[in-house]
Write a structure and sequence with these properties.
- The chain is of the alpha/beta class and 302 residues long.
- The protein contains 13 helices and 8 strands.
- The chain is globular, with a radius of gyration of 18 Å.
- It starts with 7 loop residues before the first helix and ends with a helix.
- The N terminus is likely disordered.
């Protein structure tokens, strides 16, 4: 990975474990947490909508303490990754603000690191993307562990409005709306995705707030809101069982966004198992200890 790919602004905002790499033509912010002496097993973490790779700051060290390496990257539209102009490309693996593009980036990242197979986890829309990556590249996934993953919905604009809002004339208007709606990112705001807001730390707030200092953050988030199609996974999940991809679906007991019963349904469709952890929606943050145990168990089994 080449940190010289990043511009000065991104370097200023980067973390101690940050690197920047060109993935599918986009300068992408990547963070790694690894045990001393290296690791045999790698886990990929895909963050939630509104999140960033840094939201794995709790889980990364916990997995490193169990001898596992965690790699997370900011998907296009979030964090410190560049926000390219979509230039009218809104659908498919060349459309930068789609889940398909994130899947393409992840495949390129694995190629660069010479990783034939990895465990993949993700929270909320990151969990959906983890499932879609496993469906697209089953031979590269040793185990997929989606947490609070929606199967048929996302957090973007209503689907019927997205094509209508894509013309460039709406970009400055949409970016302005995003800035107004974003409001203040503080412990109370971040705590809305936790069960116990008292667990929110300054690091949790920073993981959600720092991206707002990045160039074009509001435009990028607007493009994300209008770009992608909602997922449609229930009919495809049996393909994971047919391909022999182990699935552990993780639900959060206090999740007000994606009820934990959906994890059980996901596991049933995919021929896997489900577990429930004591957390709110952002499982990899509030439920990091339990999630680390689940991932470590999956790693041993694989």
């Amino acid at each position: 990975m080449n940190p010289d790919l990043a511009d000065d602004r991104a370097r200023t905002l980067a973390y101690a474990n940050s690197e920047f790499v060109d993935l599918a033509g986009v300068r992408t912010h990547v963070q790694t947490w690894a045990p001393d002496g290296g690791a045999v097993t790698t886990v990929i973490g895909l963050h939630h909508f509104y999140g960033s790779a840094q939201t794995y700051h709790r889980l990364g060290p916990l997995l490193a303490g169990r001898g596992l390496r965690l790699i997370a990257f900011d998907r296009v539209g979030f964090g410190l990754t560049d926000r390219p102009d979509p230039r009218g490309v809104w659908v498919g693996p060349d459309a930068p603000y789609t889940r398909a593009f994130a899947i393409r980036q992840l495949a390129e990242l694995l190629d660069r690191l010479d990783l034939p197979r990895v465990l993949v986890t993700g929270t909320s829309m990151g969990g959906t993307t983890a499932l879609e990556f496993a469906l697209t590249h089953p031979s590269r996934v040793a185990h997929v562990l989606p947490a609070s993953a929606p199967l048929t919905a996302d957090a973007a604009a209503p689907p019927f409005l997205r094509p209508l809002l894509r013309p460039r004339v709406f970009t400055p208007i949409g970016a302005g709306v995003v800035r107004r709606l974003a409001g203040t990112i503080d412990a109370d705001r971040v705590g809305k995705s936790f069960h116990d807001a008292a667990r929110v730390t300054a690091e949790d707030v920073d993981a959600h707030a720092r991206f707002r200092e990045a160039d074009d953050w509001a435009r990028g988030l607007w493009w994300k809101f209008v770009a992608d199609r909602p997922p449609s996974l229930p009919r495809r999940l049996p393909e994971l069982a047919a391909a022999g991809v182990p699935v552990t679906a993780i639900g959060a007991r206090h999740d007000r966004t994606v009820h934990p019963r959906y994890a059980a349904r996901l596991a049933e469709l995919a021929g896997g198992r489900s577990v429930v952890v004591d957390a709110g929606h952002v499982v990899h943050a509030e439920g990091a200890e339990e999630l680390a145990d689940v991932i470590a168990t999956a790693a041993v089994g694989d």
